[in-house]
């Protein structure tokens, strides 16, 4: 079985799972190392699947959220576009749950955002500007992922369309 087939099968297993599945269990099923499974999970995430790593193992976020629609949206932009990006998401009816980056040394770094309105976005941007902190995306040349919740696939399509028009959506 090649890597693409294995990743497809891992995703099928996670789609059917109601409880987390450990990396060791997946490694045993496919007769590969746990590190290969970690890499596979990263590639599956990069394809847009929202996989949560818990102390008990891997599970799709939708299994934890009672079926609400959640999607990972890859973006890239500089500091100037940060507020515009977040406003596009909330103006279209999405809620920005968090932001994450893949750091070469530390792996996945995540920051909770929970932004559902322009007021939330403005407060976040003000806090960022009034602190000495930098956004996580500063660590990765502006590349980052947002986990977004929305009530329908149509809203996700509108968010991605508007982010693409703004030059912010990172092509998958």
Describe the model.
The chain is an alpha+beta fold. It has two domains: 3-60, Winged helix-like DNA-binding domain superfamily/Winged helix DNA-binding domain (Arc Repressor Mutant, subunit A); 68-165, 2-Layer Sandwich (Histidine-containing Protein, Chain: A), CATH 3.30.1340.20. 43% of the residues lie in helices and 24% in strands. The chain has helices spanning 3-16, 23-30, 34-46, 61-64, 82-91, 118-129, 153-165; strands at residues 51-54, 57-60, 69-76, 95-103, 107-115, 143-150. The strands form two sheets. The chain has a four-stranded antiparallel sheet with strand order 3-6-4-5. Strands 1-2 form a two-stranded antiparallel sheet. Strand 4 (95-103) and strand 5 (107-115) form a beta hairpin. Helix 2 packs across helix 3 (34-46) and helix 5 (82-91) runs antiparallel to helix 6.
SSE string, helix = H, strand = E?
HHHEEHEHEEHEH
Percentage of residues in strands: 15-25%
User: Structurally, how many domains make up the residues?
Assistant: 2
Largest sheet: 4 strands, antiparallel
- The portion of residues assigned to helices is 40-55%
Number of strands: 6
Average pLDDT works out at 91
CATH architecture of the largest domain: 2-Layer Sandwich
**Sheet with the most strands: spatial strand order:** 3-6-4-5
Shape descriptor: globular
- Total count of helical runs of at least 4 residues: 7
Q: And the CATH topology of the largest domain? A: Histidine-containing Protein, Chain: A
Oligomer: single chain
Question: Could you tell me the radius of gyration in angstroms?
Answer: 17 Å
The name of the CATH superfamily of the largest domain reads 3H domain
Distance between the termini: 24 Å
């Amino acid at each position: 079985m090649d890597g693409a087939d294995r990743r497809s099968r891992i995703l099928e297993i996670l789609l059917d799972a109601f409880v987390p599945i450990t990396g060791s269990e997946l490694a045993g099923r496919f007769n590969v190392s746990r590190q290969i499974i970690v890499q596979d999970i990263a590639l599956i995430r990069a394809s847009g699947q929202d996989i949560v790593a818990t102390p008990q193992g891997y599970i799709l976020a939708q299994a934890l959220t009672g079926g609400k629609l959640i999607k990972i949206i890859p973006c890239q932009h500089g500091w100037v576009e940060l507020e515009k990006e977040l406003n596009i998401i909330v103006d279209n009816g999405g809620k920005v749950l968090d932001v994450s980056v893949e750091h070469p040394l530390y792996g996945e770094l995540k920051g909770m955002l929970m932004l559902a309105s322009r007021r939330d976005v403005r407060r976040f941007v003000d806090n960022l500007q009034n602190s000495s902190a930098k956004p996580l995306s500063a660590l990765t040349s502006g590349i980052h992922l947002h986990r977004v919740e929305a009530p329908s696939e149509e809203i996700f399509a509108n968010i991605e369309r508007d982010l693409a028009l703004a030059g912010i959506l990172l092509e998958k």
